[in-house]
């Protein structure tokens, strides 16, 4: 139960890669948290993650349940730390430019004012 009350930031600080191998996922807010923490993301190519990740640009996508593809992506990011850093920086940029709270509030204001 302890883990339920801890923030994800403490885990992101020690992580090299964030993997979300879901077969079903909503929006995937945890992906945005990983983007904010500037950690490269690997996620299943499903609704939710596909809306947030541009494959090989701000994260990597793999076919659900294809663990060989997942392992290959993990190995590639491990073996190519510069590529990993670029993907992480692009994810962080996407978070800051597209998903920050100010933009969200502006979008809501625009929606409700129309």
Structure description:
It is built from six helices and three strands. The mean pLDDT is 90. With 114 residues, the protein is mostly helical. The N and C termini lie far apart (44 Å). The longest helix is centred in the C-terminal third of the chain and has 18 residues, at 81-98. It has a three-stranded parallel β-sheet, with helices on both faces. The protein is globular, with a radius of gyration of 15 Å. Helix 2 (29-36) crosses helix 5. Helix content is 53%, strand content 9%.
Largest sheet: 3 strands, parallel
Our Rg estimate from Cα atoms comes to: 15 Å
Q: Write down the secondary-structure element order.
A: HEHEHEHHH
Provide the low-confidence segments as ranges.
none
Average of per-residue pLDDT values: 90
Give a short summary of the structure.
With about 110 residues, the chain is mainly alpha-helical. The protein is built from 6 helices and 3 strands; from the N terminus they run H-E-H-E-H-E-H-H-H.
Fold topology:
Elements lengths: L8 H4 L5 E3 L8 H8 L4 E4 L4 H4 L7 E3 L4 H13 L1 H18 L2 H13 L1
Keywords, please?
114 residues, mainly alpha, three-stranded parallel β-sheet, 53% helix
